[in-house]
Design goal:
single chain; about 425 residues; alpha/beta; Arc Repressor Mutant, subunit A; Nucleotidyltransferase, domain 5; five-stranded mixed β-sheet; 16 helices; binds zinc ion
Length: about 425
Protein backbone atom coordinates (compact mmCIF):
# COMPACT_ATOMS: atom_id res chain seq x y z
CA UNK A 1 0.00 0.00 0.00
CA UNK A 2 1.21 3.40 -1.01
CA UNK A 3 1.94 5.44 2.14
CA UNK A 4 1.00 8.79 0.57
CA UNK A 5 -2.36 7.33 -0.44
CA UNK A 6 -2.91 6.04 3.10
CA UNK A 7 -2.11 9.47 4.51
CA UNK A 8 -4.55 11.15 2.14
CA UNK A 9 -7.29 8.70 3.16
CA UNK A 10 -6.55 9.36 6.85
CA UNK A 11 -6.66 13.11 6.29
CA UNK A 12 -10.06 12.90 4.58
CA UNK A 13 -11.52 9.79 6.26
CA UNK A 14 -14.70 11.48 7.51
CA UNK A 15 -15.29 13.18 4.16
CA UNK A 16 -14.87 9.86 2.31
CA UNK A 17 -17.45 8.32 4.65
CA UNK A 18 -19.92 11.11 3.84
CA UNK A 19 -19.37 10.48 0.11
CA UNK A 20 -19.98 6.74 0.62
CA UNK A 21 -23.25 7.28 2.43
CA UNK A 22 -24.57 10.24 0.42
CA UNK A 23 -23.68 9.82 -3.23
CA UNK A 24 -24.63 12.87 -5.28
CA UNK A 25 -24.89 15.21 -2.27
CA UNK A 26 -24.27 18.88 -3.16
CA UNK A 27 -20.99 20.50 -2.05
CA UNK A 28 -22.55 22.82 0.51
CA UNK A 29 -24.29 19.93 2.28
CA UNK A 30 -21.06 17.91 2.20
CA UNK A 31 -19.26 20.88 3.80
CA UNK A 32 -22.00 21.18 6.44
CA UNK A 33 -21.81 17.46 7.29
CA UNK A 34 -18.03 17.76 7.74
CA UNK A 35 -18.21 21.03 9.71
CA UNK A 36 -15.90 22.79 7.27
CA UNK A 37 -16.28 25.61 4.76
CA UNK A 38 -17.27 24.98 1.13
CA UNK A 39 -13.82 26.05 -0.23
CA UNK A 40 -12.14 23.53 2.12
CA UNK A 41 -14.39 20.79 0.72
CA UNK A 42 -13.62 21.84 -2.89
CA UNK A 43 -9.92 21.59 -2.16
CA UNK A 44 -10.24 18.22 -0.40
CA UNK A 45 -12.37 16.77 -3.21
CA UNK A 46 -9.83 17.93 -5.75
CA UNK A 47 -7.06 16.23 -3.80
CA UNK A 48 -9.09 12.98 -3.56
CA UNK A 49 -9.87 13.10 -7.31
CA UNK A 50 -6.22 13.66 -8.17
CA UNK A 51 -5.29 10.57 -6.17
CA UNK A 52 -8.19 8.62 -7.74
CA UNK A 53 -9.64 7.89 -4.30
CA UNK A 54 -12.88 9.29 -5.72
CA UNK A 55 -14.10 9.53 -9.31
CA UNK A 56 -14.97 12.73 -11.18
CA UNK A 57 -18.60 12.48 -10.01
CA UNK A 58 -17.27 12.35 -6.40
CA UNK A 59 -18.28 8.70 -5.93
CA UNK A 60 -15.83 6.57 -3.96
CA UNK A 61 -13.48 4.40 -6.04
CA UNK A 62 -14.23 0.81 -4.93
CA UNK A 63 -10.89 -0.47 -6.21
CA UNK A 64 -8.68 1.45 -3.77
CA UNK A 65 -8.57 -1.73 -1.69
CA UNK A 66 -10.53 -4.17 0.43
CA UNK A 67 -11.48 -4.65 4.06
CA UNK A 68 -11.76 -8.13 5.55
CA UNK A 69 -14.34 -8.90 8.21
CA UNK A 70 -14.21 -12.05 10.32
CA UNK A 71 -17.00 -12.86 12.75
CA UNK A 72 -16.53 -15.48 15.45
CA UNK A 73 -19.91 -16.75 16.58
CA UNK A 74 -20.91 -19.39 19.12
CA UNK A 75 -21.39 -21.93 16.33
CA UNK A 76 -20.20 -20.46 13.02
CA UNK A 77 -17.38 -18.17 11.86
CA UNK A 78 -17.87 -16.07 8.75
CA UNK A 79 -15.46 -14.16 6.56
CA UNK A 80 -16.46 -11.41 4.18
CA UNK A 81 -14.64 -8.80 2.07
CA UNK A 82 -15.77 -5.26 1.29
CA UNK A 83 -14.49 -2.98 -1.41
CA UNK A 84 -13.41 0.55 -0.52
CA UNK A 85 -16.98 1.80 -1.19
CA UNK A 86 -18.27 -0.73 1.43
CA UNK A 87 -20.01 -2.83 -1.23
CA UNK A 88 -19.32 -6.55 -1.07
CA UNK A 89 -16.23 -7.75 -2.90
CA UNK A 90 -17.02 -10.89 -4.96
CA UNK A 91 -14.98 -13.84 -3.69
CA UNK A 92 -15.86 -16.58 -6.19
CA UNK A 93 -12.22 -16.97 -7.17
CA UNK A 94 -11.11 -17.35 -3.52
CA UNK A 95 -13.65 -19.91 -2.50
CA UNK A 96 -12.24 -22.69 -4.68
CA UNK A 97 -8.70 -21.95 -3.55
CA UNK A 98 -9.73 -21.93 0.07
CA UNK A 99 -11.66 -25.13 -0.33
CA UNK A 100 -8.44 -26.80 -1.46
CA UNK A 101 -6.56 -25.62 1.60
CA UNK A 102 -9.36 -26.73 3.90
CA UNK A 103 -9.92 -30.14 2.31
CA UNK A 104 -7.85 -32.06 4.81
CA UNK A 105 -9.54 -30.37 7.69
CA UNK A 106 -13.08 -30.78 6.31
CA UNK A 107 -14.34 -27.79 8.22
CA UNK A 108 -15.81 -25.75 5.41
CA UNK A 109 -19.23 -26.82 4.27
CA UNK A 110 -21.07 -25.96 1.07
CA UNK A 111 -18.29 -23.90 -0.43
CA UNK A 112 -19.96 -24.31 -3.78
CA UNK A 113 -23.10 -22.48 -2.79
CA UNK A 114 -23.74 -18.99 -4.05
CA UNK A 115 -23.15 -17.03 -0.85
CA UNK A 116 -20.49 -14.36 -1.05
CA UNK A 117 -18.70 -15.31 2.14
CA UNK A 118 -16.58 -18.09 3.61
CA UNK A 119 -17.72 -19.87 6.72
CA UNK A 120 -16.70 -22.70 8.96
CA UNK A 121 -17.96 -24.27 12.16
CA UNK A 122 -16.48 -22.53 15.18
CA UNK A 123 -13.73 -24.86 16.44
CA UNK A 124 -13.81 -26.24 19.97
CA UNK A 125 -10.37 -24.94 20.98
CA UNK A 126 -8.50 -21.67 20.56
CA UNK A 127 -5.50 -23.37 18.93
CA UNK A 128 -7.80 -24.84 16.26
CA UNK A 129 -9.55 -21.51 15.68
CA UNK A 130 -6.17 -19.84 15.37
CA UNK A 131 -5.02 -22.51 12.93
CA UNK A 132 -8.08 -22.03 10.70
CA UNK A 133 -7.71 -18.26 10.66
CA UNK A 134 -4.05 -18.60 9.75
CA UNK A 135 -4.84 -21.08 6.96
CA UNK A 136 -7.14 -18.41 5.55
CA UNK A 137 -4.46 -15.73 6.00
CA UNK A 138 -1.85 -17.87 4.24
CA UNK A 139 -4.14 -17.88 1.18
CA UNK A 140 -4.88 -14.17 1.55
CA UNK A 141 -1.13 -13.55 1.54
CA UNK A 142 -0.86 -15.33 -1.84
CA UNK A 143 -3.86 -13.40 -3.23
CA UNK A 144 -2.16 -10.17 -2.18
CA UNK A 145 1.13 -11.23 -3.77
CA UNK A 146 -0.75 -12.11 -6.96
CA UNK A 147 -2.50 -8.70 -6.82
CA UNK A 148 -5.93 -10.34 -6.68
CA UNK A 149 -6.55 -8.46 -3.46
CA UNK A 150 -5.29 -5.22 -2.00
CA UNK A 151 -6.12 -5.70 1.66
CA UNK A 152 -6.21 -2.49 3.71
CA UNK A 153 -7.32 -3.70 7.15
CA UNK A 154 -8.94 -6.59 9.02
CA UNK A 155 -11.79 -6.43 11.53
CA UNK A 156 -12.56 -9.36 13.84
CA UNK A 157 -15.90 -9.42 15.60
CA UNK A 158 -16.40 -11.84 18.42
CA UNK A 159 -19.05 -13.25 20.69
CA UNK A 160 -18.64 -12.22 24.35
CA UNK A 161 -17.75 -8.87 25.89
CA UNK A 162 -15.07 -6.94 24.05
CA UNK A 163 -13.11 -4.09 25.57
CA UNK A 164 -12.40 -2.09 22.41
CA UNK A 165 -10.04 0.33 24.11
CA UNK A 166 -7.69 -2.48 25.18
CA UNK A 167 -8.60 -4.76 22.24
CA UNK A 168 -9.27 -7.69 24.54
CA UNK A 169 -12.15 -10.14 25.05
CA UNK A 170 -13.24 -9.57 28.62
CA UNK A 171 -15.68 -12.38 29.08
CA UNK A 172 -17.16 -15.08 26.86
CA UNK A 173 -19.74 -17.51 28.16
CA UNK A 174 -20.41 -19.06 24.76
CA UNK A 175 -16.76 -19.75 23.96
CA UNK A 176 -14.83 -19.68 27.25
CA UNK A 177 -11.53 -20.21 25.42
CA UNK A 178 -11.81 -16.65 24.08
CA UNK A 179 -11.67 -15.07 27.52
CA UNK A 180 -8.75 -12.70 28.10
CA UNK A 181 -7.59 -13.11 24.49
CA UNK A 182 -5.97 -10.08 22.99
CA UNK A 183 -6.37 -9.21 19.29
CA UNK A 184 -2.73 -10.13 18.61
CA UNK A 185 -3.29 -13.67 20.01
CA UNK A 186 -5.29 -14.58 16.89
CA UNK A 187 -2.43 -14.71 14.39
CA UNK A 188 0.83 -16.62 14.10
CA UNK A 189 4.00 -14.54 14.29
CA UNK A 190 4.83 -14.89 10.58
CA UNK A 191 1.32 -13.68 9.67
CA UNK A 192 1.60 -10.73 12.05
CA UNK A 193 4.93 -9.81 10.43
CA UNK A 194 3.38 -10.05 6.98
CA UNK A 195 0.42 -7.86 8.00
CA UNK A 196 2.68 -5.31 9.68
CA UNK A 197 5.05 -5.14 6.69
CA UNK A 198 2.09 -4.55 4.40
CA UNK A 199 0.48 -1.96 6.66
CA UNK A 200 -2.62 -4.10 7.26
CA UNK A 201 -3.74 -3.46 10.84
CA UNK A 202 -6.36 -5.60 12.60
CA UNK A 203 -9.00 -4.62 15.14
CA UNK A 204 -11.36 -6.37 17.54
CA UNK A 205 -15.03 -5.58 18.16
CA UNK A 206 -18.06 -7.34 19.63
CA UNK A 207 -20.58 -9.09 17.33
CA UNK A 208 -23.66 -7.06 18.27
CA UNK A 209 -21.67 -3.79 18.14
CA UNK A 210 -20.33 -4.75 14.71
CA UNK A 211 -23.88 -5.59 13.65
CA UNK A 212 -25.19 -2.08 14.46
CA UNK A 213 -22.36 -0.50 12.42
CA UNK A 214 -23.34 -2.66 9.46
CA UNK A 215 -27.08 -2.11 9.95
CA UNK A 216 -26.65 1.66 10.19
CA UNK A 217 -24.48 1.86 7.07
CA UNK A 218 -26.83 -0.44 5.15
CA UNK A 219 -29.86 1.72 5.95
CA UNK A 220 -28.58 4.34 3.48
CA UNK A 221 -29.03 1.94 0.57
CA UNK A 222 -31.63 -0.57 1.78
CA UNK A 223 -34.01 1.73 3.71
CA UNK A 224 -33.15 5.39 3.06
CA UNK A 225 -36.33 6.52 4.86
CA UNK A 226 -34.78 5.28 8.13
CA UNK A 227 -31.22 6.40 7.36
CA UNK A 228 -31.58 9.66 9.31
CA UNK A 229 -32.37 7.80 12.55
CA UNK A 230 -29.86 8.88 15.17
CA UNK A 231 -31.03 6.67 18.04
CA UNK A 232 -31.01 3.07 16.94
CA UNK A 233 -30.80 -0.30 18.64
CA UNK A 234 -30.13 -3.61 16.93
CA UNK A 235 -31.42 -6.71 18.67
CA UNK A 236 -29.09 -9.51 17.71
CA UNK A 237 -29.92 -13.16 18.38
CA UNK A 238 -27.05 -15.57 18.61
CA UNK A 239 -27.00 -18.03 21.54
CA UNK A 240 -28.57 -15.22 23.54
CA UNK A 241 -29.96 -11.76 22.90
CA UNK A 242 -27.53 -8.86 22.57
CA UNK A 243 -28.07 -5.27 21.51
CA UNK A 244 -25.94 -2.73 19.67
CA UNK A 245 -26.60 1.01 20.07
CA UNK A 246 -26.20 4.23 18.17
CA UNK A 247 -27.10 7.10 20.48
CA UNK A 248 -27.20 10.70 19.25
CA UNK A 249 -25.72 9.44 15.99
CA UNK A 250 -22.68 7.91 17.70
CA UNK A 251 -21.70 4.35 18.45
CA UNK A 252 -22.33 3.56 22.11
CA UNK A 253 -20.74 0.57 23.87
CA UNK A 254 -20.61 1.74 27.50
CA UNK A 255 -17.66 2.05 29.86
CA UNK A 256 -15.94 -1.17 28.83
CA UNK A 257 -18.17 -2.85 26.30
CA UNK A 258 -20.92 -4.32 28.48
CA UNK A 259 -23.70 -2.12 27.05
CA UNK A 260 -26.39 -4.15 25.34
CA UNK A 261 -26.39 -7.30 27.46
CA UNK A 262 -30.19 -7.25 27.26
CA UNK A 263 -30.47 -11.04 27.45
CA UNK A 264 -29.24 -10.92 31.04
CA UNK A 265 -31.84 -8.42 32.26
CA UNK A 266 -34.68 -9.79 34.41
CA UNK A 267 -37.82 -11.06 32.72
CA UNK A 268 -40.73 -8.70 33.56
CA UNK A 269 -43.23 -10.19 36.03
CA UNK A 270 -46.08 -9.21 33.69
CA UNK A 271 -44.67 -11.48 30.94
CA UNK A 272 -44.37 -14.40 33.35
CA UNK A 273 -47.92 -13.74 34.62
CA UNK A 274 -49.43 -13.39 31.16
CA UNK A 275 -47.94 -16.71 29.99
CA UNK A 276 -48.21 -18.54 33.31
CA UNK A 277 -50.24 -21.46 31.92
CA UNK A 278 -47.94 -21.85 28.93
CA UNK A 279 -44.82 -21.74 31.09
CA UNK A 280 -46.34 -24.29 33.49
CA UNK A 281 -47.21 -26.54 30.57
CA UNK A 282 -43.64 -26.38 29.21
CA UNK A 283 -42.24 -26.82 32.72
CA UNK A 284 -39.64 -24.13 33.33
CA UNK A 285 -36.89 -25.55 35.47
CA UNK A 286 -36.29 -23.03 38.24
CA UNK A 287 -33.33 -25.01 39.59
CA UNK A 288 -31.11 -24.39 36.58
CA UNK A 289 -29.30 -21.08 36.18
CA UNK A 290 -28.17 -18.94 33.30
CA UNK A 291 -24.43 -18.36 32.78
CA UNK A 292 -25.00 -14.91 34.32
CA UNK A 293 -26.04 -16.71 37.54
CA UNK A 294 -29.66 -15.64 37.44
CA UNK A 295 -32.72 -17.87 37.15
CA UNK A 296 -35.10 -15.55 35.41
CA UNK A 297 -33.13 -13.50 32.90
CA UNK A 298 -34.58 -13.09 29.40
CA UNK A 299 -32.00 -15.39 27.77
CA UNK A 300 -32.63 -18.17 30.24
CA UNK A 301 -36.39 -18.03 29.87
CA UNK A 302 -36.15 -17.69 26.09
CA UNK A 303 -33.94 -20.76 25.78
CA UNK A 304 -35.85 -22.93 28.20
CA UNK A 305 -39.44 -21.88 27.47
CA UNK A 306 -39.28 -21.07 23.75
CA UNK A 307 -36.70 -23.55 22.50
CA UNK A 308 -36.57 -26.43 24.97
CA UNK A 309 -38.73 -28.64 22.77
CA UNK A 310 -36.60 -28.16 19.69
CA UNK A 311 -35.12 -31.45 18.53
CA UNK A 312 -31.82 -29.77 17.75
CA UNK A 313 -29.74 -27.99 20.33
CA UNK A 314 -30.74 -24.29 20.24
CA UNK A 315 -27.08 -23.30 19.98
CA UNK A 316 -26.74 -25.14 16.66
CA UNK A 317 -30.00 -23.91 15.13
CA UNK A 318 -29.54 -21.62 12.13
CA UNK A 319 -31.93 -18.85 11.02
CA UNK A 320 -33.98 -21.20 8.81
CA UNK A 321 -34.32 -23.84 11.53
CA UNK A 322 -35.44 -21.20 14.01
CA UNK A 323 -38.04 -19.99 11.52
CA UNK A 324 -39.32 -23.53 10.85
CA UNK A 325 -39.48 -24.23 14.55
CA UNK A 326 -41.48 -21.06 15.29
CA UNK A 327 -43.78 -21.70 12.36
CA UNK A 328 -44.76 -25.10 13.69
CA UNK A 329 -44.89 -23.90 17.32
CA UNK A 330 -47.16 -20.82 17.29
CA UNK A 331 -47.37 -20.60 21.10
CA UNK A 332 -43.59 -20.35 21.28
CA UNK A 333 -43.66 -17.71 18.53
CA UNK A 334 -46.23 -15.72 20.49
CA UNK A 335 -44.13 -15.88 23.64
CA UNK A 336 -40.91 -14.89 21.81
CA UNK A 337 -42.67 -12.04 19.95
CA UNK A 338 -44.10 -10.72 23.21
CA UNK A 339 -40.68 -10.96 24.88
CA UNK A 340 -39.14 -8.97 22.00
CA UNK A 341 -41.96 -6.43 22.35
CA UNK A 342 -41.01 -5.97 26.02
CA UNK A 343 -37.39 -5.42 25.02
CA UNK A 344 -38.48 -2.85 22.43
CA UNK A 345 -40.53 -1.02 25.08
CA UNK A 346 -37.61 -1.17 27.51
CA UNK A 347 -35.14 0.29 24.98
CA UNK A 348 -37.62 3.00 24.01
CA UNK A 349 -38.20 3.86 27.66
CA UNK A 350 -34.52 3.94 28.67
CA UNK A 351 -32.92 5.46 25.58
CA UNK A 352 -35.84 6.91 23.58
CA UNK A 353 -34.67 4.80 20.63
CA UNK A 354 -36.57 5.55 17.42
CA UNK A 355 -35.59 2.50 15.39
CA UNK A 356 -35.14 -1.12 16.44
CA UNK A 357 -33.52 -3.46 13.92
CA UNK A 358 -34.06 -7.19 14.43
CA UNK A 359 -31.03 -9.07 13.20
CA UNK A 360 -28.79 -12.12 13.68
CA UNK A 361 -30.68 -15.43 13.72
CA UNK A 362 -33.97 -13.53 14.08
CA UNK A 363 -33.97 -12.10 10.59
CA UNK A 364 -35.89 -14.89 8.90
CA UNK A 365 -38.55 -15.15 11.62
CA UNK A 366 -39.70 -11.60 12.23
CA UNK A 367 -42.77 -11.85 9.99
CA UNK A 368 -44.03 -14.54 12.39
CA UNK A 369 -43.25 -12.32 15.39
CA UNK A 370 -44.24 -8.78 14.28
CA UNK A 371 -47.88 -9.19 15.34
CA UNK A 372 -46.87 -10.01 18.92
CA UNK A 373 -44.11 -7.41 19.06
CA UNK A 374 -46.59 -4.73 17.94
CA UNK A 375 -49.34 -5.93 20.28
CA UNK A 376 -46.89 -5.49 23.15
CA UNK A 377 -45.65 -2.06 22.06
CA UNK A 378 -49.30 -1.01 21.53
CA UNK A 379 -50.11 -1.94 25.12
CA UNK A 380 -47.72 0.72 26.40
CA UNK A 381 -49.22 4.07 27.22
CA UNK A 382 -45.86 5.75 26.72
CA UNK A 383 -46.68 7.20 23.33
CA UNK A 384 -43.20 7.21 21.82
CA UNK A 385 -42.97 3.43 22.11
CA UNK A 386 -45.48 2.90 19.33
CA UNK A 387 -45.61 6.29 17.71
CA UNK A 388 -41.97 7.10 17.10
CA UNK A 389 -40.17 3.82 17.60
CA UNK A 390 -40.17 1.94 14.30
CA UNK A 391 -39.26 -1.71 14.02
CA UNK A 392 -37.45 -3.15 11.05
CA UNK A 393 -35.85 -6.46 9.99
CA UNK A 394 -32.29 -6.62 8.73
CA UNK A 395 -31.69 -8.19 5.33
CA UNK A 396 -28.14 -9.14 6.37
CA UNK A 397 -28.96 -11.05 9.56
CA UNK A 398 -26.17 -13.37 10.67
CA UNK A 399 -23.75 -11.82 8.16
CA UNK A 400 -24.01 -8.35 9.69
CA UNK A 401 -21.23 -8.76 12.34
CA UNK A 402 -18.67 -9.78 9.68
CA UNK A 403 -19.75 -6.86 7.46
CA UNK A 404 -19.66 -4.48 10.44
CA UNK A 405 -16.21 -5.74 11.47
CA UNK A 406 -14.87 -5.01 7.96
CA UNK A 407 -16.36 -1.49 8.14
CA UNK A 408 -14.98 -1.00 11.67
CA UNK A 409 -11.46 -1.70 10.37
CA UNK A 410 -11.84 1.33 8.03
CA UNK A 411 -12.94 3.60 10.88
CA UNK A 412 -10.06 2.45 13.09
CA UNK A 413 -7.26 2.35 10.53
CA UNK A 414 -8.01 5.83 9.20
CA UNK A 415 -9.18 7.34 12.52
CA UNK A 416 -12.61 8.13 11.10
CA UNK A 417 -15.15 8.91 13.79
CA UNK A 418 -17.97 6.43 14.38
CA UNK A 419 -20.44 9.26 14.07
CA UNK A 420 -23.36 9.41 11.67
CA UNK A 421 -24.48 12.97 12.42
ZN1 LIG B 1 -28.53 -14.56 31.97
Amino acid sequence: MNIALDEAITQHANLIQVLRLHPGLDKNSIAEKNNVSAPTVYKALEDLRKREIIYNDDSVNPNIGQFMGISIGATVCKIVFLNFDFKEFPINCFKKELQKSFNNKSIVEDLNDICNYIYFKTPTSFSELKEYLNVVLEKIKIFIEESKLNLLAIGISSTGIVDEKNQIIYQSHNLPYLEKRNISDFFYIDKKDFLRNNNIPFFLIQNSTASIISEKNNLYTSNPEYSNSKNIASIYLEYGLGAGFIVDGKLFTGENGYAGEIGHTPTPASLLYKFKDFIDKIGFDTNSKCVCNSIGCLDHIMRSVVFNKSKINFKDMNSNEIRNFLESNPEQAQFLGTLLGYITNMLAAILNINLVVFTGKLYKSTDLLYKYIEQTTDESNLKFNRGDCKIYTSDKGTLSPALGAAMYSYYKKYSSSLDWN
